[in-house]
Amino acid sequence: MADRSDLALDIDEVPFSTRGSWLDLSRIVGLHRRADDVHLVTHRTGMHPILRLTPRLDGADAECRVALRPHTMAWERDGAVIEAVFDGPDALRLRGDGLGMRFAAPAELTPFTGGYLFRDPLDGAFVLTSYESGRRYRLTVLRGDVEVVGAEVTGSGKRHIEAGSAPWEIALEELGTAAAPYAATATFEELVARQRSAFEAYADRLRGAAEETPGTRKAAYVLWSATVAPSGFVGREAVLMSKHWMDKVWSWDHCFNALALAPGDADAALDQFLLPFDHQDASGALPDSVTHSEVLYNFVKPPIHGWAFRELEARASRPFTPAELATVYERLAAWTRFWLDSRRAPGHALPYYQHGNDSGWDNATTFDTDRVIESPDLAAFLILQLDVLAGLADRLGEASGDWMEARDGLARALLGELWTGDRFVARAVDSGRPSSSTSLLNALPIVLGEQLPPEVAERLAATIAGHLTEWGPATEPVDSPRYEPDGYWRGPIWAPSTVLIESGLRRAGFEELADRVSAAFRRVCERSGFAENFDAVTGDGLRDRAYTWTAGAYLVLHADARERDTARLLTIGER
Question: Using CA atoms in the order 253, 505, 314, 334, what is the torsion angle rounded to 10 degrees?
Fold first, then answer.
């Protein structure tokens, strides 16, 4: 395996972390909050900055350049350096030569907030307990001397541990109540080599047969570093949306990361797909989101899971077993019945959203007039999901007739009630009043692809072309009076809408337009990184800058584009 460790990353854009860890080193310490110093941040029980890590020289703070690679992080100044590397998911090793470092805890300790610092007589390590995370943070000095301030202090007071500029090395761990004393079973150099090898192997699996680019390796790092081990309510290995403030798994975001994982690791992909289903309630509904210490049911997310599982099977590195298919069938069936039984008004054929959050497009202009609406995207997703359920039923020896009957009824209602002749509209459930049709949301029935009447598909393709900018499909036309450059779903370009639209266009036969959508989105990712969303005019990254569904979508589109290029070259060669 070639050494490709020259991938330089920006600590202000992505955190330093590793697969399986709930920890990271970052300057991002909260919702849109950036600190000057790097902090140790945990995502157990929420996002909590635990320790401020400040380089020191001659008794004063030292301004340093931060150099970040997938396997190491360093603070550098005039030949002096501090380095950090992960030693497993719950520990970091840090060492310095020519620079010291202060590990500082919050100054305030109350009965409910802050940290308590003490020296543990068992092994001589220093321990900080955190009310915010409910965990302990143990610093074990492996080399050099440290100064400790504020040990056993309660109330208000300084609390820090500081290593001097002479060579030093410290292990920093996140613990529960107790653990065996830290034992350095590998040298620092061995840990660096192990982390480098682990990341490169992961990136190679994720990339599969596709050509490697700086974009694919950076996307791989975003996914790798945001992956956490099972803990709390997260019962499977999971890719969080980010190890910045979006540190959850939302019940549609996960689908796009599952697709990215599928070619290299079908087991991880299936776990990612099924994770929200572990918290499916008695009605069949999925939670809005899941994270370490919280499962939210106040909203749901759109039922794209039939579409996603169809794509997942097509991309997976191995066939799914009959038992796995049966599990997916059972979960998808309950999820679909929720929409048909609990989200249709009496006498109505079409299901409804209760709020924009249910659609995933929280504040899209479709919801400006009314919030409780029968929306065309919802019906289209359920039509696909019913198709997938019928196919799974046939493969498993179950009856499929009811699924097909429900599918046909929804398809008739979608075209008969929400298609105006040149566009889809949403409508209020109670009044029947039509909602705005300028949002890209209303064009999402293109996911039905070849199932759409040709004249409907052509109009949707034309609408999508009108949303397309140099960087991808804007969620609101840039010439709309409701367009907002940083308006969340009122203008910016997003990964999920792009992937869904690209897939539908291709299946509907609009290959050239699908190619343009794919190329534009890949271009904006290569230019601006894997942001939560992008300014549709400038291409600048917006909001959370290390968003995994963006990285996952890029990898999916990149792999598909390379596969098409290869197929075209083979076709030319055969002529």
Answer: 50
Close Cβ partners of 112 (under 8 Å, ≥ 6 residues apart): 131
Q: Spell out a b/e string for 451-486, using b for 16 or more CB atoms within 10 Å of the CB, else e.
A: bbeeebbebbbebbeebbbebbbbbbbeebeebbee
Give CA–CA dist 339/379, Å, rounded. Answer: 10
How many whole angstroms separate alpha carbon 513 and alpha carbon 472?
11
Nearest alpha carbon to residue 51 among 104, 10, 126:
104
Residue 340, class by beta-carbon neighbours within 10 Å (0-12 exposed, 13-18 middle, 19+ buried)?
Answer: middle
- Phi, psi angles (nearest 5°) of residue 139: -110, 115
DSSP per-residue letters across 111-125: SSSSEEEEE-TTTS-
Structure tokens at 27: 């300057």
- Which residues are within 8 A (CB) of 18 and not within 5 positions of it... i.e. 6 or more apart? 86, 89, 195, 198, 224, 225
Token pair, residue 365, equals: 């202009």
Angle at 106 between CA 115 and CA 231, to 5 degrees: 50
Q: What is the DSSP code string of 91-146?
A: EEEEEEES-EEEEE--S---SSSSEEEEE-TTTS-EEEEETTTS-EEEEEEEES-E
Q: How far is CA 465 from the centre of its chain?
A: 27
Nearby residues of 32 by Cβ (< 8 Å), 6 or more positions away: 245
Cross-strand pairs, 571: none
How far is Cα 427 from Cα 111, in angstroms, rounded to an integer? 51
Q: Cα–Cα distance between 260 and 395 in angstroms, integer?
A: 25
Q: DSSP secondary-structure letter at 503?
A: H
What percent of the chain is helix, strand and coil (3-state, nearest 5)? 40, 20, 40
Contacts of residue 237, defined as CB under 8 A and 6 or more positions apart, other chains included, come to 20, 227, 228, 229, 230, 268, 271
For 195-220, what is each residue's pLDDT tens digit?
999 999 999 998 765 677 889 999 99
Question: How does residue 570 score in pLDDT terms, banded at 50, 70 and 90?
Answer: confident
Sequence letter at residue 461? A
Q: Which of 466, 463, 411 is nearest to 442 (CA)?
A: 463
The string of pLDDT tens digits covering residues 293-308 is 999 999 999 999 999 9
Instruction: Decide if 550 contacts 525 (C-beta within 8 A).
Output: yes
Predicted pLDDT of residue 572: 79
